[in-house]
Write a structure and sequence with these properties.
There is one protein chain. Helices cover about 75% and strands about 5% of the residues.
Amino acid sequence: MNTMTYTTQHIWTWWIALYLFFGGLGAATLTITFLTDMYCRPHRKLVLWGALSGVVLLAISSAVLFGHLLHHTAVIYVLNPLVFIFKPDSWIAWGTQFILWMMVWGMLYALPYMRETPLFMRIPLVRSILQWPLVSWLSACCMKRRRIVGWLASINGIGTAVYTGLLIQSFPAVALWHNPGVPLLFTVSAFSTAFAYLLLLLNIFITDENDQDIRHRYERMDLILIATELVILFSFFNYTLSGSESGYRSAQLLWGDWGWLIGFIGFGLLVPFMIELRGVTKGWRGRFPTVAAAVLVLMGGYLLRHYFMYAGVYAYPW
């Protein structure tokens, strides 16, 4: 009779957690920023801060992944848009295309605002690039078709956020990952961390009193997303306990680990939930509680992915 051996995988570790965290955060940040600018009110500072930092986060995410590829020449294949024809089941290729086009459309959306910002025009090299005839023409086209460019960026941003969960869900050997709820969990977490990140920008770097309404909206949305994340995690808890032996072993690792319970569930979800609930219902004097909650949400977003990698258990018979 064969016996089953259970072991944690040791290939996808902290580096893939960073890739998923920065990728989801950057994509969701760009999406929220552009939708705010298109449908709440035009906000040049928010677009510049959100778009440029979002593109940087996506670039860091891609660099982490490509730096750990077994064959670095594989970058050529995943960057090729025709990869869908030859390898349509490659989720990394899909994700790379989403990230690439998210960065392209994101920079095009921010381009008209960059040309209106004195800071960029004071930098000689940047000023000369922004004054090129082709760049001027692109800027005028993007401003005229602002919502089309914004939606193209947002669609790719949503695709990137969903993809981070689909990539993990595509591994049938690990019961914790091979769950249809994983893409939903990672998407909700990506947008929650993005709202938290934008709250940091609005409370530390963009200190405009006219943004009070946007801050309240972001805080309410983050509160709803944290609550949704807690419900999904409770469902995961029941799923892993009543499913396969591999899932049960993953549940033992997660729910018996103080880093998961206190670091992620406690300080990454419950504490910021209570802080934001108080902020939404009664408000706070000063910005420190909101900033603290945002930092904790960002910490929790990384810890979710870190412990998901750590608790990936697979089984094999002897």
